[in-house]
Structures are given as C-alpha cells and as structure tokens.
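Preliminary data (for renewal application), iron/sulfur cluster complex.
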Amino acid sequence: MLRDLLINRELFEEIKLKSFQEDSCEKMESFEKRVFVKLKKKRSLKKYKKFGVKKADLKEIIELSDRVSLKLFDGPSDYQIAEEHPEWCSHCGTCCTQSSPIFIHRDEINLLLIFKPSLNEEIIQNKEYTQHYMFKEDLPCKFHDPEINRCKIYNFRPQVCRTYPLVLIGQDRYTLDLLHKCDYSTQLVLEKSIILFDEAIKRQKK
Ligand code: SF4
Ligand code: SF4
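Predicted structure:
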C-alpha cells in the first residue's frame, strides 16, 4: 500500500491508538469522507492507476495526515501551514458555538473585561493549564453574536480562537480538532494529504 512507503504500518497503528480523537469514530469518519471527496478531485484515481493507486490508498494517506505532522517528513508543522492560509476559514461560527472549552490566558483577562465587565463572575480557573481561565458555560461562547454569526470582539479574541482548529494538548503541543465541521481543518488535512501523496508517489518511482 502507498502509505507503507511513508511510515511503518505498526508504528502508525501505535500512533493511531494514542490519538486523542479516536473515541469519536463516527465524527472522524465523516471528516475523512469530506477530505476524501476533495482529494479525489486533486489526485484522481484514473491518473494514478498506472502506479497501482486505489481508493484505499487515498483513505490511508488521509488517515496519516489526520494524525501526524509533516515535520515527521522534514516538512512544515500544522501551525506553519495553517498560518499561511487565513482564507481557509469560512467564518461558519462552529468553533464559537460547538467547541469547548475556550481558554482565556490570564494576560488576556483585562482586555476582555473592557468588553464584558461581568466576565469575572463567569470564568473559573483551568485546572490543567493553570495560567488559563475558562468559561463556566461556553456553548455558545459569550462573545458570539448569533444574529450575524460573528465574534463581537474578533480583533481582540483570545489566542485559543486565533489558533483554532489547532488545539493545545499537554503543555506545548498542538493537535488538530477534527471533531467539528470546520472548513479550515478540511483544507489543512487536504493540503497535507496532497503533499504526502506526492511524496509517496515520488518514493514509489525510485
Ligand atoms: S475556524 Fe473552522 S469552525 Fe471556526 S469559523 Fe473558521 S471554518 Fe468555522
Ligand atoms: S471569543 Fe470570539 S472567536 Fe473566540 S470563541 Fe468566542 S466568539 Fe468565537
């Protein structure tokens, strides 16, 4: 299979087992289907038939793109790729209404208090990330305006909103949140899948 040219199968299975998103299989499946439809248009099975590429190969490449950073192949990190493509965000508002928790760093509190003086009453300390606070209730976020489906404080939004769909796991590691329907994540994984697909084909040609 094409993916075996990029990563050892057993190693990948181990990575998959440790993936923090594995408990939501249905959501992952539907995410991967969306990427698959797009990838097929970019790397058609017809064109790559001569290399023995099948539908399952595209699916495996997407699965790899979901779970590993291209840094593993001396490429850019997810963060670096995402940073270059602000246009991938369709401003759908899903992250503001369905994703939780929303972290607020202690250095961000004073600015946010200007917009929402009652904020002090509505937040609690985040026990895992002690420099951060979080809303007691954040679905939807208190700063989301449902009438226009926009953030009321967009230019002053917390860092966690600026990096979404990349979310912090552990103290300094980011991973992609694939459990919500986010065009940004779809485009990011599509971009990575194309890069990995081309790399695998290059290795196969050697
Ligand atoms: S980051 Fe994703 S979920 Fe949030 S508004 Fe943009 S496209 Fe929608
Ligand atoms: S602060 Fe703004 S961008 Fe962040 S979750 Fe709330 S509404 Fe969305």
